[in-house]
Amino acid sequence: MRDLLFLFVIFFLTLTASLAQDYPYDIDQYPFIHYKKNQLEQIENAIGFAAFFSKWEDIVVGKNTKLEILHLGDSHIQADFFTGRVRQRVQSFSAGAEGARGIVFPYNLAETNNPGNYIIESENNWQVVNALKTSDSKTGIIPLKLTTTDSLITLRVKQKDDAINTEFNEIEFWYHASDTVNLLTPGKRWVHLKKGYGRVALTLTTFTKNVEITLNRRGDSVPFELFAVWLKNSLPGITYHALGLNGARAKDFVMCDNLSRFLRFVTPDVIVMSLGTNDIYSDNPDLPAFREYYSRLIADIRKVFPEKAIILTTPGDHFVRRAAANMHVEKAGQIIKEIAREHQCAVWDFYEIMGGYESVLQWRRYGLGARDLVHLSTKGYRLQGDLFFNALLKYFEKQYFPVKNE
């Protein structure tokens, strides 16, 4: 079977290179990037990766299966430039790998930057609960939720991409309701929502990228709470969920009372965590507190997913208030690697890969970094996504058809 898989993938890579001129390992070259360091570290002692890569193998050979990746983090993830590129690469790597858009949040209704590949519209009066700014800890899978006391709620979900086979024929809402709520499906059927924290999944009659949902509430004294929307389809393939929050720290995720509750709604094969920048964005960050909260966060995730693969990414090089390079990034990366060893996770060391101390200046010089010297440009996030995809692909090939990658 492995020999057959090897021949199949070699044929696929050759065909891709000859027809599309897009060999999977092709990547933009810059003198300051450490391409040889672009690998998953500590993966040999990590949990869950054999199962993850085995399922990826099944998709490559055309088996009718699904694979899910859940990526959580801060502003680098909220914008979905980095994760959107990884999603594009994994879903276009082989025929049949295309998957649905996955779990999304209506950031635009929360009056913050929304990824460009979908939008959720509503004329209702929504209140934003951002746990970074309030004492409300009853948020969801990220430290953010929306609430409304309106009796009649309308949501229009629009997927705004040109990707093929990514339409959804099922949509799921994660919510909390204290009073009677009924949902009107696109097929004009009323569905009663259970009180409390829950989710409601609607199967549509066709594949689509646009749908309108109406909710009717009998009471208006207690707010209806919305935590996430999941765009699904019944086809095999890879779904890459990506959810982040501007300014989020490890502590903010730990303090989410409902994090574990909503994590149990997902069935990921690998979880990727990208945090740390905001935890150390200071001339004198509290590194012991960062270690404590990040370790607690991964321990909480391990309780929900004891056998799943987890990848921790290190924060990239950046300046503090554009004044000086943050000399604590390397130490934060070391802390993350120690936490990964404790909880049997793999690590993707983006700090070292991007070039280390003050390398963000080179990224900025070549049009890869943003003016704030913290974030990347769209081009830079695209490159980061290519690097992360290549790191996954390198280990995939090493594991299943061990040929030397040059």
The count of β-strands is 18
The CATH class of the largest domain: Alpha Beta
State the CATH topology of the largest domain: Rossmann fold
The low-confidence runs, each spanning 5 or more residues with pLDDT under 50, are 10-21
Largest sheet: 6 strands, antiparallel
Would you spell out the secondary-structure blueprint of this structure?
Blueprint: H1 2-20, H2 49-60, E1 66-73, H3 75-78, H4 81-92, E2 102-104, E3 118-121, E4 127-130, E5 144-148, E6 152-159, E7 168-177, E8 181-184, E9 190-193, E10 196-208, E11 210-217, E12 224-232, E13 237-244, H5 250-254, H6 259-263, E14 270-274, H7 287-304, E15 309-313, E16 319-320, E17 324-325, H8 329-342, E18 346-348, H9 350-354, H10 359-365, H11 378-400
Parallel strand pairs: 1-13, 1-14, 14-15, 15-18
Antiparallel strand pairs: 2-12, 3-6, 4-5, 5-12, 6-11, 7-10, 7-12, 8-9, 8-11, 16-17
Helix pairs in contact: 4-11, 7-8
Describe the protein's architecture and organization.
It contains eleven helices and 18 strands. With 406 residues, the chain is an alpha+beta fold. Mean pLDDT is 91; it is low at 10-21. It folds into two domains: 29-99 and 236-406, SGNH hydrolase (Rossmann fold); 102-234, Jelly Rolls (Sandwich). The two termini are 25 Å apart. The strands form four sheets. Strands 2, 4, 5, 7, 10 and 12 form a six-stranded antiparallel beta sheet that branches. The protein has a five-stranded parallel beta sheet with strand order 13-1-14-15-18, with helices on both faces. α4 (81-92) runs parallel beside α11.
